Amino acid sequence: MFSTEFLDIPPLTEAAGTVRLPGSKSISNRVLLLAALASGTTTVHDLLDSDDTRVMLTALAQLGCRIEQGDGTLRITGLGGKLSTPQAKLFMGNAGTAMRPLTAALSLLGGDFELSGVPRMHERPIGDLVDALTQLGCHIDYLGNPGYPPLRIHPVTLQSLHLDAPIRVRGDVSSQFLTALLMALPLASYRDITIDVVGELISKPYIEITLNLLARFGIHVRREGWQRFTIPAGSQYQSPGEIHVEADASSASYFIALGAIASEGLRIEGVGAESIQGDIRFVEAAAQMGARIQSGPNWLQVSRGAWPLKAITLDCNHIPDAAMTLAVMALYADGPTTLTNIASWRVKETDRIDAMANELAKLGAKVEAGPDFIRVFPLPADGWRAASIKTYDDHRVAMCFSLAAFNPASIPVRVLDPHCVAKTFPDYFETLFSVVKPLSVPVICIDGPTASGKGTLAVEVAHELGYHYLDSGALYRVTGLAMRRAGLDADPAHETQIADLARTLPLRFDAGKAMLAGEDVTDAIRSEAAGMDASRVSALPAVRAALTELQISFRRLPGLVADGRDMGTVIFPDAPLKVFLTASAAQRAERRHKQLISKGISTTLDSLRSDLEARDLRDSSRSVAPLKPAEDARRLDNSTLSIEQSVDQVLNWWQQAQPFQAAPTKASP
Ligand SMILES: Nc1ncnc2c1ncn2[C@@H]1O[C@H](COP(=O)(O)OP(=O)(O)OP(=O)(O)O)[C@@H](O)[C@H]1O
Ligand SMILES: Nc1ccn([C@@H]2O[C@H](COP(=O)(O)O)[C@@H](O)[C@H]2O)c(=O)n1
């Protein structure tokens, strides 16, 4: 998961391969609540692990449910309709799928509860649900603005509820209000309970998911059209024992679009033709735009059909969440695309109509929007602009704008606060990067003499940008260690054997540790003697050649920061930023001295200084890939700079090389 301030997605060209999607958020949170209300233990397979499901699980644990994590499963022992904790303050984050159903269930369970969330949750309406519950005899107070969370729920007895008349609830703001009632009212079904929907019910497919899952838990709701629902008297929750969560059809929309835009065949696993989720009908919309799609019970195969995509006008009431993806696909269409009946976008994680309109416009698109529609005009190749996409703490905004990286102008896309995808798809960007081909992966090279601070600087810069990190010196150090263990010496007579060792090193980097054939050699390769051995083996041309491919393999999306001696001159000569980092020999010896002492390794300043000067001399005078600045390298002498100042300087240089207007927040030294 990326927790950086922003994520730059380089221009992308193609997609191919297979993705396995995480579990559906809608199904996961419904299953969790139903399992919590039921009697017995439910084993849940393929549950989504995300912010919203964690919010639900934390609340259920607070309410007294037993929750056990298994190997890829979660076991939840339900309350059997009876509270063991009659009082709690529950934090719902920004999870509508937790806030609404828990409000209804807790109102009937007879306890004293406070439900709150993040500031945006306190702007998301809940008044229609509270009205319906109040009509029923429940006692709920608003703790902030009337009609919005936070809420205080007071205890009532089931016998005091007015169940004789139909309960009326609005269906035209959020279908979650009806879902909440359908999931809570079986707790009070000592007689038939009827719910009447007022207004046109939106997002009907989500109600179908609710009814389907209720049936799995023993509640068979009678339905008359989409206006009246009856929970039969005597309904009782019963755990089905085992339940599988299918992959998220809304999350599939980004990969369906990816296939339509840029693939000769992208396979999506975990969701398919037999899905119970409404957003699976995104497949029809994508096909209308030109995607070629095949499907099986739980898989989809998508490739580009019509190109440019075909513009459409579509009533999106049945696919409110996935429809956002169409708004970005529209940039690649042959005319304006109009998405209608999307008023519910305005009360989601953010006002999604405004958010999409603003961000599409930043890319250069012409957009028209109204209370319940958005019209997006396609972008010609010369119309694309480099944009920093604001994501409004809305996972779907972040995910669908990643598709803009396929623009024909080959402009990168900056996604601000990429961490917001944690709500439903924490590894979204990693999954995307596993199937796309970039025009080029950006690399920042940091070369320089011993102990100049290359590693420290490179790790920090990589961390800030969410990039991978290559410590190329470690490869030579491990080769030196392997050479010693094989009883070889760093001289030309053993060159071929050492090169063979280097080519087949059973080396893995794991959480900053160097693992050689499963052994942690992190400390063993850090001594000055190991540095000297590294310097000697690195002067052997065959050894350098043997390690080249391995170093290049670190160049993966979204980018790489590589430190060493020849990163900019030999390994990544096309890197867009090369830094040659120096500091005075006295400073470097002093820093290394402190570093070794802090690790409990005793040494003297004088011996260190003469060792590092000897190493620098050998590294810069060898015949192959000598230590020297690349012609286009920027020089940075950090003798008088702090680590933070050096990092800021490199990030500023990097920002200057980007097409985005937004400057980094940190100042240069
Ligand atoms: N700008 C700086 N100011 C002060 N100390 C620094 C600075 N940069 C790095 N250091 C410190 O200097 C020591 C050596 O840094 P580091 O190990 O990153 O150097 P290096 O160039 O990667 O070394 P090597 O060539 O052995 O790989 C570390 O203890 C680090 O914290
Ligand atoms: N790209 C590189 C990186 C390192 N070396 C040699 O390895 C020695 C150890 O490197 P550290 O950065 O870990 O100190 C170094 O002295 C070089 O001789 C190299 O040749 N090329």
From TrEMBL:
Any one GO molecular-function label of the UniProt entry: kinase activity
Protein localization: Cytoplasm
Annotated Gene3D superfamilies: Enolpyruvate transferase domain, P-loop containing nucleotide triphosphate hydrolases
The Enolpyruvate transferase domain, residue ranges: 15-432
Function: Catalyzes the transfer of the enolpyruvyl moiety of phosphoenolpyruvate (PEP) to the 5-hydroxyl of shikimate-3-phosphate (S3P) to produce enolpyruvyl shikimate-3-phosphate and inorganic phosphate.
Xref: NCBIfam families: aroA, cmk, PRK11860.1
Designated name of the protein: Multifunctional fusion protein
Species annotation: Variovorax robiniae
Lineage: Bacteria, Pseudomonadati, Pseudomonadota, Betaproteobacteria, Burkholderiales
Gene name per UniProt: aroA
